[in-house]
Automatic annotation (TrEMBL):
Domain Oxidoreductase molybdopterin-binding, first and last residues per copy: 428-570
BP GO terms, sorted: respiratory electron transport chain
Keyword Transmembrane helix attributed: yes
Name of the protein this chain belongs to: Oxidoreductase
SUPFAM superfamilies reported in the protein's UniProt record: Oxidoreductase molybdopterin-binding domain, Transmembrane di-heme cytochromes
Superkingdom: Bacteria
Keywords of the record: Cell membrane, Membrane, Transmembrane, Transmembrane helix
Matching Gene3D superfamilies: Oxidoreductase, molybdopterin-binding domain (3.90.420.10), Transmembrane di-heme cytochromes, Chain C (1.20.950.20)
GO molecular function per UniProt: electron transfer activity
Ranges where the Cytochrome b561 bacterial/Ni-hydrogenase domain occurs: 104-332
Listed GO CC annotations: plasma membrane
Length: 595
């Protein structure tokens, strides 16, 4: 390989290292993320002990379980004591609480519809996010082999050597694709776009939910779904037996739900929904770095696992709920929820079918729309949730962990540097390495590697949160960015600090250097450091030698590795495609990533 002039960072304008194409058009899946092949997700398997079982086993198990339940319930209903039990506890809440006789008001019916729309996108985008790191663990270190659920095979053993950057199995290698109709947008490593859907719809869903809570309690509608007597339990048992025996209880759903309905609705509205929100927040680096939740039972991987379990509950609920609407008096039930009246009008059915058609169009359109207009998805997402993310960035990271928390395995990510320049510097142990620090500063400098080691050293044990879902705890040693800022003295106009890597981003053909921008204020945090050590040893190539950034407030992709230069700028609109970093430009991530 010849060392062409363009390969070298020396003496060039830093911004020229970046790919300038605006990339507003369609996504080309063949060249996406370095042209990774579209490996599809496997049907989830679950680990029990050391063995893996396909979740497809649930199908025969469920069918067998249903048959047994039906036989058992029909048998039980022959007994006299069961007769009198069902007589005393017929199932409906009418037996112990007054009826709700105000019908289903319009706000409730509309909110129910909005909820369906939001949930369908939330669930699909959520699955896409899972597919970007298709393993669920309970330990903060996300160690391969310890996951309890996975959507692909085990990590290849011969690709887990951290000293061999050339063969390392990265988190990106681990991502999988979903069918376009299932995930949004389906193709591999599309988490940036999926997150805009997930977070925007989440905000709508939360607002809808809060309004729903307020109206429930201010109108008395809460009485439908909040149990008001312990009698709800025997009534739920009674309902279960009656359903299972296929001799259904009376449907009085317009005024009184039965025990099972009350418990299921209560659990969904007042337990699962808020828990989904909380377990979402617990996955955020800014929150964990502020409060130190990363260790122990509230760690990100437990939160992810719970978040996923809630998803399973939601899917289970939706399936059972919809089935029951169909089998317990379809037209009557539709009248309740569409028209709000206890009638048997076929108008309700017609409206229901029309709405379902609209939902089907939205369902089918979401992925193609996202693939065709990714920049619009990114901009709209930013418009909807950007302010929430900027709010979350106000926190000051302070969580530190113990030596014993350090993860035995630390997932790697990203494409290593391939230039001759990098190899030469590496070969003579960074003797000729020069860190350029320039831009809007009083005194541009270049620092040698020895010069950097001579600056005051700081160490911190912190947790890394990759956007893809894995996390890992490591001890980082290096120099505070603030130390370097003191040397160059930023001008008042400087607002952002740009970190340029030696490595190009992964897209092919060559699309310029990896880079990312950080707020100057964040770089003054005592925990913002340029690390040259990891776990007490010199930083290796895989994890970013000679220097990599740690900004504990933000997700992993903003922690630029193999740093070649630093520039202070007023804004980043003129850099690359103007979105604030390589992944922001090319993979439609947001530039604020405290969650
Ligand atoms: N230059 C460069 N830096 C990079 C990346 C990259 O692709 N190129 N990947 C980022 C991502 S997505 C993550 S999660 C972290 C991973 O750091 P690690 O390999 O030390 O775990 O590096 C970040 N820094
Ligand atoms: Mo990442």
């Amino acid at each position: 390989m010849s060392d062409s002039a363009e390969n070298s960072s020396r003496g060039r304008r830093l911004e020229d290292l970046l790919d300038q194409s605006r990339l507003d058009g369609r996504i080309d899946i063949d060249t996406w993320a370095g042209g990774i092949s579209q490996d599809n997700a496997q049907v989830p398997s679950v680990r029990i002990g050391r063995r893996w079982f396909s979740s497809l086993w649930l199908l025969p198990i469920t069918i067998a379980g249903l048959i047994v339940a039906i036989a058992l319930a029909q048998h039980l209903r022959q007994y006299e004591w069961m007769h009198s039990f069902i007589e005393s506890y017929p199932g409906t809440s009418a037996s112990y609480a007054p009826a709700v006789d105000t019908g289903f008001p319009a706000w409730l019916r509309w909110q129910h519809l909005f909820n369906i729309v939001f949930m369908m996108f939330l669930i699909r985008a959520g699955l896409q996010i899972l597919a970007d790191h298709p393993r669920l663990y309970l330990n903060a270190g996300s160690r391969p082999g310890t996951e309890w659920l996975r959507l692909r095979d085990a990590v290849p053993e011969d690709r887990m050597d951290p000293e061999n950057a050339a063969t390392a199995w990265t988190a990106k290698d681990d991502s999988v694709a979903l069918p376009k109709w299932l995930g949004i947008p389906g193709f591999r490593h599309s988490i940036g776009l999926a997150r805009w859907w997930h977070f925007s719809l989440d905000l709508f869903w939360l607002v809808n939910g809060i309004v729903f809570y307020v109206l429930l309690f201010s109108t008395g509608q809460w009485r439908r779904i909040v149990p008001r007597s312990w009698d709800v339990f025997p009534n739920a048992v009674s309902t279960a037996v009656q359903y299972a025996s296929l001799d259904f209880p009376a449907n009085e759903g317009f005024t009184n739900y039965n025990g099972l309905q009350i418990l299921a609705y209560f659990a969904t509205v007042f337990v699962a929904a808020p828990l989904a929100f909380v377990t979402g927040l617990l996955q955020a680096p800014s929150i964990a770095a502020r409060f130190g939740f990363g260790r122990g039972v509230l760690n990100r991987q437990v939160a992810r696992s719970l978040h996923f379990t809630i998803l399973l509950w939601m899917i289970f609920f939706i399936l059972v709920h919809t089935t029951m609407v169909f089998v317990t008096g379809f037209v009557g039930n539709l009248n309740h929820i569409v028209l709000g009246t206890e009638t048997e009008s076929y108008w309700a059915l017609a409206i229901y079918v029309a709405v379902m058609l609209v939902l089907a169009v939205l369902w089918v359109g979401a992925s193609p729309l996202t693939i065709r207009h990714p920049r619009i998805v990114q901009r709209s997402g930013r418009a909807v949730v950007g302010w929430v993310k900027s709010f979350m960035e106000w926190s000051h990271p302070k969580a530190i962990y113990d030596e014993k928390d350090i993860s035995p395995f630390f997932w790697p990510n990203g494409d290593r540097p391939r230039s001759d320049e990098y190899r030469r510097l590496q070969a003579d142990d960074w003797k000729n390495y020069e860190l350029r620090v320039e831009g809007l500063v009083e005194k541009p400098i270049t620092l040698s590697y020895a010069g950097i080691l001579a600056l005051p050293k700081t160490e911190q044990i912190t947790q890394h949160y990759c956007i893809q879902g894995w996390s890992g705890i490591a001890k980082w040693g290096g120099v505070r960015v603030s130390e370097i800022l003191d040397l160059v003295r930023p001008l008042p106009e400087a607002k952002w600090v740009v970190f340029y890597s030696f490595a190009d981003g992964p897209a092919t053909p060559g699309t310029g250097r990896y880079y990312d921008c950080h707020r100057l204020a964040h770089m003054r945090e005592p925990m913002a450091i340029l690390a040259y050590e990891m776990n007490g040893r010199r930083l290796n190539e895989l994890h970013g030698a000679p220097l990599r950034l740690r900004n504990e407030l933000e997700l992993g992709f903003k922690q630029v590795k193999w740093i070649a230069a630093i520039e202070l700028v007023h804004d980043f609109a003129h850099l690359g495609a103007g979105q604030g970093g390589y992944n922001e430009d090319r993979e439609f991530f947001g530039y604020r990533m405290p969650i």
